[in-house]
Design goal:
Elements lengths: L1 H20 L1 H4 L4 E9 L10 E5 L10 E4 L5 E7 L3 E8 L6 E7 L4 E3 L2 E3 L4
Parallel strand pairs: 1-7, 1-8
Antiparallel strand pairs: 1-4, 2-3, 2-5, 5-6
């Protein structure tokens, strides 16, 4: 009987360790920056725009995340568990670069839409 109690106790402890060590159960979802890039003249979405997420407004710092807009101009950048002011830089040949900022709360998704002006 004493051996059976020991086995049950060990099984219970192992089960608790396995269940409690799975971080995906307890971690909240990461944050994202999402939006749409449009042509300033036509208000139509622009495809294949290179977007980068930065935590400083200059272009010298390395981006935290990068994405390319889809055929309708929509994009999604991974922000992880960061919070504070974020900057989205958009570049595409034939357009002037665009930058916009927003405040990102931890575990949140924020919308940052950009409008690019065509180069003449």
């Amino acid at each position: 009987m004493n051996g059976r109690i020991t086995i049950i106790a060990i099984t219970l402890c192992v089960t608790m360790v396995i269940c409690c060590s799975d971080k995906t159960i307890y971690d909240p979802p990461p944050g994202f920056v999402v939006g749409k890039v449009v042509d300033a003249d036509s208000d139509l979405g622009i495809d294949s725009v290179m977007l980068s997420l930065r935590f400083q407004p200059d272009t010298l710092t390395s981006p935290s995340s990068m994405a390319v807009s889809d055929s309708s101009g929509y994009y999604r950048l991974f922000a992880g568990y960061n919070q504070g002011r974020v900057y989205v830089l958009a570049t595409k040949e034939g357009f002037l670069p665009g930058i916009s900022d927003a405040h990102l709360s931890k575990y949140d998704t924020v919308v940052v839409n950009l409008s690019l002006i065509r180069r003449e």
